[in-house]
From TrEMBL:
Keywords: Cytoplasm, Nucleus, Proteasome
Keyword Cytoplasm attached: yes
Biological role stated in the UniProt entry: The proteasome is a multicatalytic proteinase complex which is characterized by its ability to cleave peptides with Arg, Phe, Tyr, Leu, and Glu adjacent to the leaving group at neutral or slightly basic pH. The proteasome has an ATP-dependent proteolytic activity.
Matches recorded under PROSITE patterns: PROTEASOME_ALPHA_1
Organism of derivation: Caenorhabditis brenneri (Nematode worm)
Name of protein: Proteasome subunit alpha type
Main location: cytoplasm
Subunit structure: The 20S proteasome core is composed of 28 subunits that are arranged in four stacked rings, resulting in a barrel-shaped structure. The two end rings are each formed by seven alpha subunits, and the two central rings are each formed by seven beta subunits.
Length: 169
């Protein structure tokens, strides 16, 4: 049984593979999948973020593209709202903003707020870190996310008030 079209060598006039372009568009519009496995074929149509640690504890983040290519990033997004989140991260990511877990989590929440409707029920966050050669993973509770959202919202309101006061002068 064929799950994928084997005719992947149909090129557009400007030299791009049509199936790869269609797969990239499908990733932007698509939803999550539990698994995509088919022996002997590359799983076109998926994009993943893969995070982990090197043997020395250095965090690494890779993104796979529907074409099968992969790239390394310090921060990225994938899926339906990837463009505004990625643009936010490109503008606001810095070593200072990721110096500790609290500031990193605020950056994550602020970037997700670009595309996710307000409320902690719409956000899930997992934290991975390596401490003394031991991998620690945890998923933030709804209460923790709600507290982060309140802090981020308070900072946003304070920044807007400061900007309004500056404009009045």
């Amino acid at each position: 049984m064929n799950r994928y079209d084997r005719a992947i060598t149909i090129f557009s006039p400007d030299g791009h593979l049509f199936q790869v372009e269609y797969a990239q568009e499908a990733v932007k519009k698509g939803s999550t999948a539990r698994f995509t496995q088919s022996p002997g074929r590359r799983p076109f149509g998926i994009s993943m973020l893969i995070g982990g640690f090197d043997h020395d504890g250095t965090p690494r983040l890779f993104k796979t593209e529907p074409s099968g290519a992969y790239y390394e990033y310090v921060a990225n997004s994938t899926g339906r709202g990837e463009k505004p989140v990625r643009e936010y991260l490109e503008e606001h990511y810095s070593e200072e903003n990721t110096a500790d877990e609290a500031t990193t989590l605020k950056l994550v929440v602020k970037s997700l707020a670009q595309v996710v409707p307000p409320g902690s029920q719409n956000i899930e966050i997992a934290v991975m870190k390596k401490v003394n050669d031991e991998l620690q993973q945890r998923v933030l509770s709804t209460d923790e996310i709600e507290a982060l959202l309140k802090v981020v919202e308070a900072e946003r309101v304070a920044a807007e008030a400061e900007e309004a006061a500056t404009k009045k002068k």
